[in-house]
């Protein structure tokens, strides 16, 4: 859920030249197979939040919204791997839906390396089992807005993993674009009617 | 007893393109239907000037929002499908005071930043044209305080995007005798006039920012003066007798002074009949139904919706999804018939 | 939310009319229309989501876990999470206490007993994604739907396992899972979770499910519990308008309580019937949004 751009609740938060992006991540207790109580100050969640904020600071045209805060609340209701990737994609769509100006889509996917074969979009079992990387690609370029590697990966294999991940992200972007256009056209057709 | 009298629960319906709309529409609308999405190249021709919703990179113009392209002369901009209200000079809007500050009020007008209403941009008691004195500054809360609703006009937009408002006209000022509702601002169609008298003794102000005020129609100007006078006495009695209008200025007439106080009164007209009250709620539901159907809101449509709503003897049933859809359908059909 | 004094007095004057005139012209016993969806979370035993026209939204998940019955004090655990409020704030703990208390007292948890040693424990998690008026009714209606559609797997091992060391085993086929209601029916009882209804009291009128604007001018607020086709305790009163200085607020006349019970008895059944009707027509193939 995107709120804003809006007045900051605290004066001190305001940045006179550009907007502040604030992300709240809420991972539901019941999202994983085993129910587990999570607090918002858990290290992993704080890190995810910081990563997302950094990623989107670059892609959103923050300079257009001085003295405002863009607040994004993310609720994870169910998860089975690719948590960060899913959140990034959802946030991209939500920001576009809110009419906030962005340079381009940020599409994201996770990839891992099993033995010698790179694998795309791991589920949580696979994620636990092998080293995984999450990337976020800006538009159709090969520029990365986000790269998250939580454990080791052999350097000579990295390139093949990145290649498959970038290709995967481009595919995700196409899917998001198609859906956005479909929704947009529904709205636009209603507008022309009226 | 009927369950639907108490509650209506429906399943969410996924949005789909109306099939019959697609069939009947000719090619010209098909072109209009195409939208652009962020990062999409709009044109690689450098003659276009870049407007809102676009950015410029290596001689190419890209879109930064999802929306429709608009071309005005050489200015190319993309209008987002959804988004916050963007104020423009001259817009007639409705706002709610959020903060009383130093010689200014902050007003929520549903845009990305609160607008500013300077003490110098309002009519103060004691004559329209007079200097603002220190005593005015000290009692700003007596004029307008947090939570108060007013209608105003956008005077200018500052460089940083903040709007400055003014209420220097008799049609602007504090709102009374009615209820407030809000709809998405893109549904309000800009026109010359934004306040209308509707059948059923109800007036509406359609703020361009999507804030709407429905109230009882006030009587003609002659009668108004009469009620103003009596009400003003009441205020003076109950409210703030110690007030001495700005020390340096002389009020032209007693009447003018009092009538000016009246514009900041919080008292409603004591004679609002139940039928007016129910008409207001009926209009409230009609406007909500129009907004639900994503229909642009105009005076005509509200009146047509009101007529269509007469089919519902029980106005309360109008808030159900089906009822709102049927009202929208009625309005569309009605428009088609009139061409 | 702050209303201007003029709005406030107009609204108050409208609400105290006989019959009352509400801003959306609802009848005094009419709830706001809802949009609801059940069983959409694949990882939960039961789930439901309710959305109001004004954008208020609540999601409830029910998860069951097998526990050793003797070790657990309560077989039901509730958690409420409201966006924008800290978990330990008064507002959230009040909601949580109300819900937990209601379910623990009025939920025949003996029926969750699996075997002589083990039992199901239900974890009910509510997330209020956005709300304008006091969200207790919203939460309780959503948890009603979630509980009603909760499915528990079929037990295949022996019920008497006093001497057996292993955990109970369940059928692998999810199609064999039974809704919680069937568990209860098997033990000779209709399963119907209790719900809360919020009422506003203003000028001798009682209004159901007050909206956020109405809450601002109420003279008092009542929370009525409805279970097994009648109003039961707890019945509580509170100021529904949170964080506002409601100058109309005053004490409660005892006739109002009696009237609220009467109205609850009269109209509560209709709410339950509407919820049940939705569950029946809800199928799994719809989009969740």
From TrEMBL, chain A:
<dbReference type="InterPro" id="IPR050080">
    <property type="entry name" value="RNase_PH"/>
</dbReference>
<dbReference type="Pfam" id="PF01138">
    <property type="entry name" value="RNase_PH"/>
</dbReference>
<dbReference type="GO" id="GO:0071039">
    <property type="term" value="P:nuclear polyadenylation-dependent CUT catabolic process"/>
</dbReference>
<dbReference type="GO" id="GO:0000467">
    <property type="term" value="P:exonucleolytic trimming to generate mature 3'-end of 5.8S rRNA from tricistronic rRNA transcript (SSU-rRNA, 5.8S rRNA, LSU-rRNA)"/>
</dbReference>
<dbReference type="GO" id="GO:0016075">
    <property type="term" value="P:rRNA catabolic process"/>
</dbReference>
<dbReference type="Pfam" id="PF03725">
    <property type="entry name" value="RNase_PH_C"/>
</dbReference>
<dbReference type="GO" id="GO:0030847">
    <property type="term" value="P:termination of RNA polymerase II transcription, exosome-dependent"/>
</dbReference>
<dbReference type="GO" id="GO:0000176">
    <property type="term" value="C:nuclear exosome (RNase complex)"/>
</dbReference>
<dbReference type="GO" id="GO:0005730">
    <property type="term" value="C:nucleolus"/>
</dbReference>
<dbReference type="GO" id="GO:0000177">
    <property type="term" value="C:cytoplasmic exosome (RNase complex)"/>
</dbReference>
<comment type="similarity">
    <text>Belongs to the RNase PH family.</text>
</comment>
<dbReference type="GO" id="GO:0034476">
    <property type="term" value="P:U5 snRNA 3'-end processing"/>
</dbReference>
<comment type="subunit">
    <text>Component of the RNA exosome complex. Specifically part of the catalytically inactive RNA exosome core complex (Exo-9) which may associate with the catalytic subunits RRP6 and DIS3 in cytoplasmic- and nuclear-specific RNA exosome complex forms. Exo-9 is formed by a hexameric base ring of RNase PH domain-containing subunits and a cap ring consisting of CSL4, RRP4 and RRP40.</text>
</comment>
<dbReference type="GO" id="GO:0070478">
    <property type="term" value="P:nuclear-transcribed mRNA catabolic process, 3'-5' exonucleolytic nonsense-mediated decay"/>
</dbReference>
<dbReference type="GO" id="GO:0000785">
    <property type="term" value="C:chromatin"/>
</dbReference>
UniProtKB/TrEMBL annotation, chain B:
<dbReference type="Pfam" id="PF15985">
    <property type="entry name" value="KH_6"/>
</dbReference>
<dbReference type="InterPro" id="IPR025721">
    <property type="entry name" value="Exosome_cplx_N_dom"/>
</dbReference>
<keyword id="KW-0539">Nucleus</keyword>
<dbReference type="GO" id="GO:0000176">
    <property type="term" value="C:nuclear exosome (RNase complex)"/>
</dbReference>
<dbReference type="InterPro" id="IPR048565">
    <property type="entry name" value="S1_RRP4"/>
</dbReference>
<dbReference type="InterPro" id="IPR036612">
    <property type="entry name" value="KH_dom_type_1_sf"/>
</dbReference>
<keyword id="KW-0694">RNA-binding</keyword>
<dbReference type="GO" id="GO:0071034">
    <property type="term" value="P:CUT catabolic process"/>
</dbReference>
<feature type="domain" description="K Homology">
    <location>
        <begin position="178"/>
        <end position="218"/>
    </location>
</feature>
<dbReference type="Pfam" id="PF21266">
    <property type="entry name" value="S1_RRP4"/>
</dbReference>
<keyword id="KW-0271">Exosome</keyword>
<dbReference type="GO" id="GO:0005730">
    <property type="term" value="C:nucleolus"/>
</dbReference>
<dbReference type="GO" id="GO:0000785">
    <property type="term" value="C:chromatin"/>
</dbReference>
<dbReference type="InterPro" id="IPR012340">
    <property type="entry name" value="NA-bd_OB-fold"/>
</dbReference>
<keyword id="KW-0698">rRNA processing</keyword>
TrEMBL record, chain C:
<dbReference type="GO" id="GO:0000177">
    <property type="term" value="C:cytoplasmic exosome (RNase complex)"/>
</dbReference>
<dbReference type="GO" id="GO:0034476">
    <property type="term" value="P:U5 snRNA 3'-end processing"/>
</dbReference>
<comment type="similarity">
    <text>Belongs to the RNase PH family.</text>
</comment>
<dbReference type="InterPro" id="IPR050590">
    <property type="entry name" value="Exosome_comp_Rrp42_subfam"/>
</dbReference>
<dbReference type="InterPro" id="IPR020568">
    <property type="entry name" value="Ribosomal_Su5_D2-typ_SF"/>
</dbReference>
<dbReference type="InterPro" id="IPR036345">
    <property type="entry name" value="ExoRNase_PH_dom2_sf"/>
</dbReference>
<dbReference type="GO" id="GO:0071035">
    <property type="term" value="P:nuclear polyadenylation-dependent rRNA catabolic process"/>
</dbReference>
<dbReference type="GO" id="GO:0035925">
    <property type="term" value="F:mRNA 3'-UTR AU-rich region binding"/>
</dbReference>
<keyword id="KW-0271">Exosome</keyword>
<dbReference type="GO" id="GO:0071038">
    <property type="term" value="P:TRAMP-dependent tRNA surveillance pathway"/>
</dbReference>
<dbReference type="InterPro" id="IPR027408">
    <property type="entry name" value="PNPase/RNase_PH_dom_sf"/>
</dbReference>
<dbReference type="GO" id="GO:0016075">
    <property type="term" value="P:rRNA catabolic process"/>
</dbReference>
<dbReference type="GO" id="GO:0034475">
    <property type="term" value="P:U4 snRNA 3'-end processing"/>
</dbReference>
<dbReference type="GO" id="GO:0005730">
    <property type="term" value="C:nucleolus"/>
</dbReference>
<dbReference type="GO" id="GO:0071028">
    <property type="term" value="P:nuclear mRNA surveillance"/>
</dbReference>
